Protein 1
Amino acid sequence: MAECHPVGFQWVVEARARGATVLHVDPRFTRTSALASRHIPIRAGSDIVFLGAIIRHLLENELNFKEYVLAYTNASAILEPGFRDAEDLDGLFSGFDPQGRTYDSLSWQYEGVPVEAAAGGSQSGNGPLNTIRDGHPVEIQRDPTLQDPRCVLQVLKRHFSRYTPEVVEQACGISPDDFATVADALARNSGRERTGAIVYSVGWTQHTVGVQFVRSAAIIQLLLGNVGRPGGGIMALRGHASIQGSTDIPTLSDLLPGYIPMPHAIRDPHLAGFIEKTAAKTGFWGHMDAYMTSLLKAYYGDRATAGNDFCFGHLPRVSGDHSTYQTTVRMLDGGVQGFMLLGENPAVGSANSKLHREAMSKLEWLVVRDLVEIESAAFWHDGPEIRSGEMRTEDIGTEVFFLPAAAHTEKEGAFTNTQRMLQWHHKATEPEGDCRSELWFFHHLGRIIREKLKDSQEPRDRPIQDLEWSYPERGPLTEPSAVDVLREINGWGPDRQPLNGFTELKADGSTTCGCWIYSGCFARGVNQTARRRPGREQSWVAPEWGWAWPMNRRILYNRASADPAGRPWSERKRYVWWDEGKGEWQGHDVPDFPKTKRPDYMPETGALAEHALRGDEPFIMQADGRGWLFAPSGLADGPLPTHYEPHESPFENVLYEQQSNPVRQVFNRQGNEYNQGSRHPYVMTTYRLTEHHTAGGMSRTLPLLAELQPEMFCEVSPALARERGLTHGDYATIITARAKIEARVLVTERIPPLRVQGQVIHQVGLPYHWGSRGLSTGDSANDLFSLVLDPNVHIQETKAATCDIQPGRLRRRRR
Amino acid sequence: MATQPRMGFFTDSSICIGCKACEVACKEWNGLEADGLDFLGMSYDNTGRLGADSWRHVAFIEQRSAAGDVRWLMNSDVCKHCTEAACLDVCPTGALFRTEFGTVVVQDDVCNGCGYCVPACPFGVIERRERDGRAFKCTMCYDRQRSGLAPACSTACPTQSIQFGPLDELRVRAQGRLAEVQAEGAQGARLYLADDDNGVGGAGAFFLLLDRPETYGLPSAPRATTRDLAGMWRTAALAAGLIVAGVAAAFAGDRR
Amino acid sequence: MLKPPVWKPEIAWYFFSGGLSGASAVLALGARVAGNRALARSALAGSLLGAAVSPPLLISDLGRPARFLNMLRVAKPTSPMSVGSWVLAGFGGCAAAAAAGEFLGLLRPLGRLAEVGAAALGLPLSTYTAVLVANTAVPVWHESRHELPIVFGAGAAASAGALATLLTAAPDSGPARRLAVLAVLVEVAAVAVMEHRLGPLGEPYREGRAATHKQVGAVLLLGGAALLALGRRRRLALSLGATMVLGGALSERFAIFRAGNPG
Ligand SMILES: Nc1nc2c(c(=O)[nH]1)N[C@H]1C(S)=C(S)[C@@H](COP(=O)(O)OP(=O)(O)OC[C@H]3O[C@@H](n4cnc5c(=O)[nH]c(N)nc54)[C@H](O)[C@@H]3O)O[C@H]1N2
Ligand SMILES: Nc1nc2c(c(=O)[nH]1)N[C@H]1C(S)=C(S)[C@@H](COP(=O)(O)OP(=O)(O)OC[C@H]3O[C@@H](n4cnc5c(=O)[nH]c(N)nc54)[C@H](O)[C@@H]3O)O[C@H]1N2
Ligand code: SF4
Ligand code: SF4
Ligand code: SF4
Ligand code: SF4
Ligand code: SF4
Ligand SMILES: [Mo]
């Protein structure tokens, strides 16, 4: 966190000064470890064993927050009798299809509450949990004594029963003492009086089981009562500025704004059916019709009417997996004509970057909008393959358009940062030359295309003709106003007055809203995201700094900060509570709960949306109002986290016959060979340096940053250096089945060898910032990696793979 | 300006995260150039030292105890703005002067590049720039201070490892912080140059270190050379006397 | 981590030329008082020569003539370089006036007065450079601050004596030779004491460029002094001896310069 989120890390430093214990679990001793109370090195890719053992520790020693767990989680829910756990099937859950390498998750359900088949673009195998079937409510069976062998808590207990400290030592290389330090600290800092937070980032996600790493943390936090309470939670430290914003209003292939799935080309012809299949009817997803209609109104304006299904048919649709790596593979096979690359540098930043460079050479055209001519724009005339002669410019047919982009300093807009907070930023200076903002580019691109299609009679052009595209242009650059866009995102009512929040959205087409979760960011006609009242001038929750979705809530599910009766769990941790006198929820934050719903509220049979949830069910986005220890829907690779080895690992899975995630996405093809046998004996992992940014386009090009880390290097322990004859300061060559790269050698005690399964394992650390252009150039770590992905979100496994390392430079072929 | 207190830096290395924001902010504000894409292999330090184009320098020290515990010390070094500033004392042109904030600043339009300040500084801070032959170092952001702003480096520092303020307040604060750090068990923690009782008569920029100053490349007993200047002049007078005596003796025996 | 000095070798030459001219002025005054006009003339010439080459040496180190003028913006007693600059400026004026009086017959009375002035300023001129280097944080210089002025003063006197010997006919050069011999002995002794007292800090004098300069210097100084002492009035022996002393004094300046400024 100190490395990659140094500004946010100041609060960790402050917390430490106030007595907090900070534990850092990471293969390397980093700048974060330097300021932590304790650093615990771990073998990359083994965290589920570690986290699973914490879960076991909490359950076996009854250290969980029992009232919380019983009332607020699905611990008591009874599962289908047909459910088989990974413990029963040696690493597989019931429903596995070995041919298609997928799961049918029908057996992972609460008893008697089956879910629907997959809807929309969801690849997770099944639709949402729904406690309303054909208009009839179905009851979730519960055992409040938590003793039923089929209740979630018992299943959980059995699932993690073999995740012992001894197995942690075996798999992670963490001693029982170190394990106890972490487990005790977490347990001690949880409960009524205290809370603990878990912070993670891509050290947990870039694995073929990445999503399940995070699920493990969620289970721990639910067991400890650390969700919805101040000082608790799971903090995903996100990446680029506004990368949170670009999932909320997504640049993802399978989502519409506000986490509404993309409709499917064949399965979703009509709005009503789409909503029926994709949204739970209980909880706040019960209003998806209102969110969706308002979104369509934002897209198509007056053309969207109840009569034409609000132009639902105009929406683009998915027909399969269109995620980035899948697209690259199609590109390699000649299946993609054109590619627009905006603010991304896959020739350096994507796993198996060499393959990306090759893929782009198969395109007909490529548009790159970036601040500088990055590697992805220059691969055809100045890439490693051109230099080595593997590719010749003459042979590349791709027509490349490079369009200079305006940087964030040259445009206004809102960043949505890691804690869901939107913060407005102003333009500091006009863009130079031809540099233009994304907003300008897309506005004018749309305008010109619409101009061209104005008179078309083709039905296929209707979606574009019907678009609402009336953004006023301003200034000599004819720039649309980002404020206007924010207003559209916030939404308005029939009087075109800004809405004050998503609860005002209607399904009848009378409201417009570009992203339902952002509704309220322009409440009362004020750009709420531009608020900058200093923290010292307001309450400690600081609600008047920026604006957080939804409804400016700073902590999600904060109803859970009070007990079932609505009283704070403790005075120390008082946050949101029921005020019987006023008949309202009160709090330091905006209560994440219907304001006047009493703690003892019981829904009537057949109630819908939020009305179907009880007054003591805080998880209002879930169909059952509970935090999910066990996930009956939404995951492609199992309802409970299970330890699998990384796709490339020098070790066998100590826990199961099943070695790696059975449903991970593999790509057996030329150029993507996987390491096999014992030729790659070391674990390698990649990471960032404070001094550089991601693929380097914004840091290796700047003299003052480039000089701070001027060369690609690898980090190895003194023991590995001895074993392989590597010399500090010299060069080494790192080798995988995909590629060889060279790097300077930094011998350091900060990347200690670990003892795993009785043998010493060395890890090689590689920053991934380098590429062939800019002031500081070097080989890309990503050339070494393969395409192998998590099945839920298709993230690449760049945190754990295997490699060999040899002293000396790489002998390069030169043209 | 009689009421203007002496301003200073308290650099608390115990909360430095080595982000180098201070280095970059300083270069940005002061228009300093990058000084080389050199991989030094000194842990994460590729700046190496303070110099004419690096007025902040973050040192990284990796340590491993006998028990195997790893420690990574980081400290952002800077000009100490000494009370007895040897650089200023020896400057023949008056280019170096003491500001109303009690800091030591070079006027680059006056500096003639004589280079005397360079070996005079007991901390090896000030340096003559190759490009234009003049001497440069931290100004404690004299220009910013004059417009009521805090220095660029302390403003950029995310963890308040660099604290800027009236020196006497900082000194009090530092005592408190030292007690905290020691209570947390940091045995080697100490303040460096935090009072007037040292060879430079006190420093405008002082530090909380977790180990011996030498570990960070700082002298444990810095001394302003000019403290000994009077003695040197006396010896020079003696030497002059010897010349006179020698000449006198040479003629005394003259038997031409 | 100290920064090494950034001075160019010109500065070592200047240590030599400044000392030479300063001590020459003292010698000239001595000769004048003793009524040895021939010696006075050659010592004056020596002081003028030194005064003439010194500023260019300094300017060459600074890079631009205008930069030397900055030295005279202020007078700072805490800065030996400032003191030295004023001394050099004053000395230069006196030496020029004295030479004008003696050699061109211009304003002779004033010239005589200037000779006194040059001698008075010549004393600090031949020793301040020692203070200048000692007044740094460079340990090998700073820690020899009790010897360096003696070394520099003696070196200045030795070179002044040697140069005057070269420029004066043997019958008149006796005092110059005696001065040179005496000064060489003092210098060599002072260097030995300095090295001894420096202890481990004296490392540069035992290895590397400074050590070479020092050894060459010592050989030349002692050899030259021996020739001056024993050479009677043999022209060749005296010239050789004087040249050797000059070379030795220069070499010793380089030794000290390089000890603190390995370059
Ligand atoms: N300075 C700087 N800041 C950045 C960025 C940058 O490039 N430079 N990038 C931004 C972006 S896009 C992102 S996504 C974030 C990422 O922020 P982080 O996730 O913090 O970034 P990384 O350095 O990639 O990975 C974090 C750590 O994971 C460790 N790690 C590797 N494998 C494992 C494992 O299996 N288990 C565990 N427990 N740890 C493991 C690595 O050693 C590394 O120290 O940072 C953002 N901030
Ligand atoms: N091995 C390995 N690979 C990784 C990771 C890892 O940890 N290890 N991390 C992964 C992660 S988390 C990420 S996020 C990716 C990042 O990888 P990429 O997104 O491919 O790399 P960036 O360098 O961040 O690319 C962003 C580009 O946007 C440009 N840019 C900046 N502002 C603007 C703008 O306003 N408009 C436009 N048009 N362009 C702009 C920048 O100049 C830069 O070139 O890398 C991934 N790859
Ligand atoms: S670059 Fe921006 S987001 Fe990243 S740490 Fe700095 S301020 Fe925070
Ligand atoms: S630290 Fe050095 S440069 Fe800074 S004031 Fe002191 S003597 Fe001068
Ligand atoms: S180099 Fe410049 S600042 Fe340093 S002493 Fe000489 S004139 Fe003064
Ligand atoms: S005070 Fe100003 S000049 Fe000095 S180091 Fe900080 S930013 Fe640079
Ligand atoms: S900005 Fe602060 S935390 Fe970062 S390196 Fe400098 S002193 Fe350390
Ligand atoms: Mo990221």
Note: Residues 73 and 136 of chain C are 22 Å apart (CA to CA).
Protein 2
Amino acid sequence: MGELKKMKDLTLEDYQAIGLKSGLEIHQQLDTEKKLFCRCPVRPYSERFDAEILRHMRPTLSELGEYDGTALMEFKTKKNIIYQINKETVCTYEMDDTPPFELNSEALDIAVEVTLLLGCKLVSEIHIARKQYLDGSIPTGFQRTTILGIDGSIPYGDRKIGIIQLGLEEDACREVSDTGHMRTYRTDRLGIPLIETVTYPEMRSPQEVADVANILRYLVRSTGRVRTGIGAARQDVNVSVDRGQRVEIKGVPRIKDIPLLVHNEAFRQVTLIEIMDELASRGINHLTFKTQTSDVTAVLKGTRYYPVAEALKKGMGVRAVTLKGYRGILSIKTQPETTFAKEVSDRVRVIACLDILPNIAHSDMDAETFSGAEWTKIKKSSGTGENDTVIVVWGGEEDLDTAVKEIIIRAEQALDGVLDETRQALPCGISGFERVLPGPNRMYPDTDLPPIAITEERIKRIRSLLPELPWIRRERYIKDGLSEEKAQRMSISPFRELFDEVSKGSGFEKQALASFLLDALRSLERNNRIENLSAPILKRTIVAAAKKGLCPEALPILVKQTCGRGMIDPEKAVDGFVKIDDKDLPERTGEYLRSLELPGIDRKRLVDFLIGRLKEKFPGQASGRRFFELVDRFVGGDPL
Amino acid sequence: MWSDVEIDSTRGNFKGIILPRSETADDTHIVLKMDTGYNVGLAVDTINSITEHGRKEAHYKIPEKEFPFDPKKPNVKLLGTGGTIASRLDYRTGAVIPAFSPGELYGSVPELADICNLETEKLYGVFSENMGPEQWRGTAEAIGREIRKGTSGVVIGHGTDTMHHTAAILSFMVQDSPVPIVMVGSQRSSDRPSSDAAINLINATRTAAHSDFAEVMVCMFGPTSDQYGLLHRGTRVRKMHSSYRSTFRTIGDIPLAMVEKDRFVPLREDYKRRRSDRNVKINTAFEERVSILYYYPNMNPDILEALIDNDYKGIIIAGTGLGHVNKPLYPALKRAADKGIHIYMTVQTLWGYVQMYVYDTGRDIMDLGVIPAANMLPEVAYVKLGWALGQSNDREEVKKIMLTPIAGEITDREPHNGYLIYQGGIPEVEEFISRFKK
């Protein structure tokens, strides 16, 4: 067990050697007016709330008659859950005081559309299921969710990435805080329609996962009917390596964060397997696994180790748990800046609710904690021998039993290597324990709603309106002369339909038109120059400019007039634009260039400088290329 | 059914376990449970072939553990009539079905063992809309038996829809109970993690085992939050919302008490105290030909005529305002009175007393033989009239029974805080609901 490997040093072959497999679950909010199972508006999010309610969650039996592991874990944590209610965006449905209304048919249409785009097999009839979430993120304790299609695929290079299923479900609450036994949620996001796309674990390197996430994002955006912006799309990434387990990292907000998370998780698993082998070689198994717990509250009276001194001041207790034969294990690095002790600490934090960190200390730590004499006393009272390690934990008496139990459980689980669990993405590409991975036991049918048939008529209607697949559109744009970068962005831009319409026969150079739509327009928008931007006016402006033979570079100037504060009629704005005839351009620009005092800089810089000046002086009169040509001639000695 | 199959259909291949289909759904689809846990429906006419690989039948069972016995703890009897205090899924109908044995209850609500020694008896397994005189009688008799056997309290599991009807009739059929009789149910069935069932059951069981309130009561959520339960007197309680957890409200008065996690907070002093004797009066005589007539403008007298012609013995009118109906009904009312039918007036406003002297209409109606029933709730008056007619058919005797309060169904005075339904939007109300988790 040496240093952890760094992502930049590894190739696809290295990841294949450890057997990395990764899959994605992408959650994407749909752009509907109302929520999925009630008639609340989907926006706006707000910090303001008008009331709060308090609830608890209890595990229930699943349809197949078993308790779900996650459910039991959440029950152990005994959380008070507070929901903040904003009256604009939440009704009694979200509060779980009213049964669901009929499923939003607009959302169903969009979900069917994406199912078709993914090439999934559509079911004939959707059945609403309840997926249990006992963390409180949904007041009912379950998410209403349904499967529309299974077994689709998307192209990735020369391969295909399989899609397991596409589901339609309601979004959950936003967490506000989670401290001790109190967790608070905001309910405005709750109930927003969401599609969940699940891929097979067919990605083989961290970068492949990000690539596929991007393709899926483009695909759903190509419908033009999904929400964008922070939190509108969230990725769950699952990772496993050979001899490992499927571990899910939840709620990764940005695709660019994915590769490092996948890399670190892969090597966390590799390390856990090495720890398992090490323990086996020490002869420790489930039969010989032994611990000894003692109350060391009295022993540590007067300690100068700050966290424990503070805890004792508040009348809390301290326990020591000796792990027989575990010497050194807790300080093995599992992730950057993180050791195996973090796995234990996480459990204590999440399940026993001892969330003021540090919440444990152990005898293999390098950091300053207890004094040497205190460690000796701790070891003596809990029977820690030469080959053992001892973990000290402190907290309220009501939580200490749970904490000790969880320490023992997690330590013993080290004998099993990797555990199937859900982890939370943390900054810097590492992850922390969130909960035990839920299984199919948490699914059961929703008895409040009847099944809904997906009729052939519905499919036919939606199929006839399917957008061109983004990767096909992208190829077409490349063929039409767009750069790869512009083709990629235009293929998923909200302006792609407009681009197709106006680029046909406008005589505009396509790359320039794409630049205008993708970049110039955005920058104008950001600078609040076009607060009245509307698609029809934009289109009329472009068409009129094309008709007059203007170049795309004139468009920003025109749009500022037609979509800005003045809202000038597009045709009028174009009429008012005085175009210099191209054959007069050399003379007019030459005259100007000759009047300038030229700075003494190298040729390339000079050219750029002069092009800039021409763009300023003759805005929208010519393409960048044409200005370059003129400046190039001028600098080359042609007086123009 | 329960076959593990692979289905080849025109929409593609699907793998999973075939589930029973709800009886109320169409018969053109089959339901498949995939290994992700999701169910999907496949149209039968799209299926080309089905290959069976095996079977996997579900076993629904609430983990059953023997309910521990502690000689130091009081004994409580839980009588089941239906409802979803504890339940599991029924594939046939897609609905939840109750689970009930002490072992099953202990398996799903282990906290009960800290409260009492629990015994259960399933009297009925009906939805609450199917409760009626037969079940009321049976329940009252069972309560009598348990009290005489020495129970410290009785809990009655009941569907919520007609819980207040049953609470009212039990208040008349079971009188002078020495122990608490607590009705309980749930608004969110216990197959849901957010269910109110466990807390309601815990509150009700604690009330039965340890409280001093020897009355027929309903014990359900106070606010929609998981904070405290309320004990409502059986004759003044009503279900007031089709789906809220806090649906049960005391009408025209204040509740008896709050049930908090570790104590009872009485809100009034006039409750009957727990006694150690075993004397209880059980009187289950009941005349079934009684009806409620909910008056509406332009009501045609033929409705009332139909009741008269069908030999109804008693009619409760839920009148408008202080207790009114329109003139066209007068001849029919006269005919009913002449035929010896007992007619009582209540108010559909629910809050407030009948007062038939204020307007001429009221006086006219009284002259026709209609008797004002003070502030008895219409449903309470309905069950009480059935019970009174079980005792006697004499007009004066019945009137005496009807107008003499037995269990708080008529009160002398309405306190100023007996009519409180706060209205949203008003600043002080908004401030209140934002400060307290209600």
Note: The radius of gyration of chain B is 25 Å.
